[in-house]
Amino acid sequence: METRLTYLGAVKTNQGKIFKIINSVWVWGLSQRATNRILIFNEKNQYVGNYYLTLTTYLPTKLKNGVLIFQNTDISCNQNTITRVNLKNGLPQEFFRKCKNDFGDIYGFDGTN
């Protein structure tokens, strides 16, 4: 088993909350399966929740000016399509990540109470 963490950065929302964004890839099992999540922490480094994504190639590639940027690196998706998720208004309960044309996947937030 192996866990790969990539810190993308922090965003300050319009309401003044600070969230730290980390890509997490947990590789497990003999077949090297992966569980992929976008982990969210607050300014005190306390876990807030996560978005579960089906493939490693679906994880965001960067965080810029409070916007998560998803560049399609999966060969089955349109490589020129980029999805942007603005976090400045807070964490969305769900977002749509485009793959090809109008097709893609909806990912939901799983947060702590």
Question: Low-confidence parts lasting 5 or more residues at pLDDT below 50?
Answer: none
Principal-axis shape: globular
Structural class: mainly beta
The portion of residues forming beta strands comes to over 45%
Radius of gyration, whole Å: 14 Å
Number of helical segments with 4 or more residues? 0
| Cα end-to-end separation | 29 Å
Number of strands: 9
How do the strands line up in the largest sheet? 1-2-3-4-9-8
Order of helices and strands: EEEEEEEEE
Portion of residues within helices: under 10%
Please provide a written account of the structure:
With 113 residues, the protein is mainly beta. The protein contains no helices and 9 strands. Strands 1-2-3-4-9-8 form a 6-stranded antiparallel β-sheet, with no helix packed on it. It is globular.
